[in-house]
Amino acid sequence: MPPASPTAAKWPKTLSADHLHRLVRAERDPRRALALFDSATAASASASTPTAGPITPSPDTVSLLTSRLASAGLLPLAASLLSRSRALFPSAAALEPPFLTLLRAFSRAHRPLAALHLFRSAPSALALPHSARSYTAVLAALVAHSQLSLARSLLADMRAAGFAPTTATYNVLLKAHCSDAAAPVDDALRLFRNIPKPDACSYNTVIDGLCRRGRLAEALELFSKMVAKGNTPTVVTYTTVIHWLAREGCFDDALKTFDEMGRRGISPNVITYSSLIDGLCKGGRAASALELLDRMIKERKSPNTITYSSVIDGLCKERKLSEAMEVLDRMRLQGRKPDAGLFGKLIVGLCDAGRAVEAANYLDEMVLAGIEPNRVTWSLHARINNAVLTALCAKGEPGRAFQVYQSTRTRSISTDPITFHLLVESFSKKNNLEQAAHVVLDMLSERCIPERETWDVIISGYWSKKKVRQEAEEVWNQLTVS
């Protein structure tokens, strides 16, 4: 691919490699940054570049620009820049940092085979020999995208080329073993024991792999060995252990580990808090979760929607609805927008508690906030609306139920057959026969054939009307006389 067309730039009288690096770093648009780079490194100086000749950039500048282009998704331009930079440096080793950046960028773009092709072509196309770092980068890309057979083949090539696996390489292989649910975690343990100097990432991967397979006791034992051997646990290590302790219902141990984390000077992040809060809420300890939420906010760790959703769900399950509504208000005051799932938890909780009108009011808020159903949330919206309609009918609120029903129809949200029947029954009992008939017609238009009970309810309603009964009797008498 040809270089980006240069744009006019205001050059200083003397342009150095350091100044070029600052210009590239300051330019926000990666295409314009590439144009600056190309102008400065052109084979012949132009009128706008009053320097004695082209600038030889630093390897850091090429690496920075490659990273910027790759992050913007401009992978062909990044690959072209790497290829053209080959002639700028006497040693090909200077290209390894941007080369590694590009390999990782292909992985982030879900193109592991492109990363493998670039790696294979590097010795001929870039005069860049393979290294342990580049082997590891490609292995990571293949493992991340489940290309395990290619990863095993590449590992064999690495060993055949005389490169001993580094700790980083072992970590990639550990991830391959632990992320594959079909692979026995004992293979990962054997591999782990062969690592000369395992780092925190090595421990984290195996601890998580053991936990995922229900071997929490072994994971905790490995965690203790990690500390004993002087490997400092990271926030990832603690978050993993806390998450699985809470998930297995070991809440006191999870809270103890959380406190130990603080004593060691390791600050919990949002994921740590959210994992512990979610586990406490699912275990019926919403009060403890609420205390953690307060602590989280005091420490200026901004809770996300998932954190708030866990707390509200836990409070609703424990019928602490006032506290749940307060948490929702606090969430909105902090600029967080509740989604359909969060609204649904509170609405269903209110319905279960018989607070149907309040549930309907929150449903209105949800609609006014512009939270509309899509292909993913369609069934969730249907469940929420049907729950509110059912609760309103049970509470004897046909007027409010009809409002919600009309809103549901306007948004093309389907109504369950049972809910249809409850609406007809509720309207008929209150002598709102026009509304009951309207619902029956909607049922028929949706090819939802009413059950006999539904017909009985509405016919009984009409029959209870004096005029209808009298006219029916007159018609019957005329038929029997004739």
Question: What secondary-structure arrangement, pairings included, does this model have?
Answer:
Blueprint: H1 17-26, H2 30-40, H3 59-71, H4 75-85, H5 96-108, H6 112-125, H7 132-144, H8 148-160, H9 167-179, H10 185-193, H11 200-212, H12 216-228, H13 235-247, H14 251-263, H15 270-282, H16 286-298, H17 305-317, H18 321-333, H19 340-352, H20 356-368, H21 378-394, H22 398-410, H23 417-429, H24 433-445, H25 452-463, H26 466-481
Helix pairs in contact: 1-2, 1-3, 3-4, 3-5, 4-5, 5-6, 5-7, 6-7, 7-8, 7-9, 9-10, 9-11, 10-11, 11-12, 11-13, 12-13, 13-14, 13-15, 15-16, 15-17, 16-17, 17-18, 17-19, 19-20, 19-21, 20-21, 21-22, 21-23, 23-24, 23-25
Report on this structure.
Residues 43-52 have low confidence and may be disordered. The chain has 26 helices and no strands. It starts with 16 loop residues before the first helix and ends with a helix. The chain is an all-alpha fold.
Brief summary:
The protein contains 26 helices and no strands. The protein is an all-alpha fold.
Specify the structural class. mainly alpha
Q: Biggest β-sheet: count, sense, barrel?
A: none
- Rounded mean pLDDT score: 86
Question: What general form does the structure show?
Answer: elongated
Q: Which stretches of 5+ consecutive residues score pLDDT under 50?
A: 43-52
Order of helices and strands: HHHHHHHHHHHHHHHHHHHHHHHHHH
Q: Whole-Å distance between the termini?
A: 96 Å
Number of strand segments = 0
| Proportion of residues in extended strands | under 5%
Proportion of residues in helical segments = 55-70%
Number of helices: 26
Radius of gyration: 33 Å
